[in-house]
Design a protein that fits this description.
Blueprint (H helix, E strand, L loop, with lengths): L6 E4 L21 E5 L4 H5 L2 E6 H5 L14 E4 L5 E5 L5 E4 L2 E5 L5 E7 L4 H6 L4 E5 L2 H15 L3 E7 L1 E3 L12 H5 L1 E3 L7 E8 L9 E5 L15 E4 L7 E5 L4
Parallel strand pairs: 11-12
Antiparallel strand pairs: 1-5, 2-9, 3-8, 3-15, 4-7, 5-6, 7-14, 8-13, 9-16, 10-13
Amino acid sequence: MLEPTRLLLVLGCRRGARLSPIVRQRNKAVAIFKYLPSQYVDPFLDGAVRFQPLSYYRRWERDRAIGDPNEAMLLFSPRAGLAVHNLTTGQRFSLPASFVSSVVANDVWVFCVSQHLDWGLASQFGADACIEIFDVRRFVLKLQRAVKTQLVSSALLNRPVRYYETEDPAGVNWAIPDQIIFSKRAGYSEQAEYRFAFANRRVLKVGNAVQRIQFGDDRPVDQSVPPEPKALVVGDLRKITKVHSKSAV
């Protein structure tokens, strides 16, 4: 009987790196900005905070400002290829491919804002209004209360998005769902995104991610139907927000 071949994929982990549980990072944002069409301003101020599934943004490939076909994924694509060590034969070689680790995009809902007030960015989003949330701590408390009372066994995470180059070592982030959820490729860094996300706690468990080797741009076609958005009702937001209008600039 032939001995199975054992291959080791080198992902550039730092020595001593460890898998860590979810870190609910304390909010350090002074103010955050939500760009949107003016007809949606009042519903938001009334307290309806609309979260979209990550799969929604994956479908917007035609509009790069809004969509990202690699949303909910972490990519590692070194120029020299993926380093592979055949543990059976001792051979070392490289593959002209990418390592991709992903979470199920239909299982995570996000509310995306920016850390900058920039009307050029608003134009990219097709927005003519911007809501400045200047008391971020109170906003987070309202969302946390809504997640606790309106959803089942879910956790709210919030922090700035981490932008990365696909050549950056994957480290251990590929195995940590919340690290994947809050990571985007560096080409989106001008958005300075701050993200709120909620998901069932089982979705956020360390190791609950799917890996694959991808050659070129030949990624699987996502045939799943994105679920409907979810609106959390958080109460009136007028005391902690300020509305900016593009027409007033």
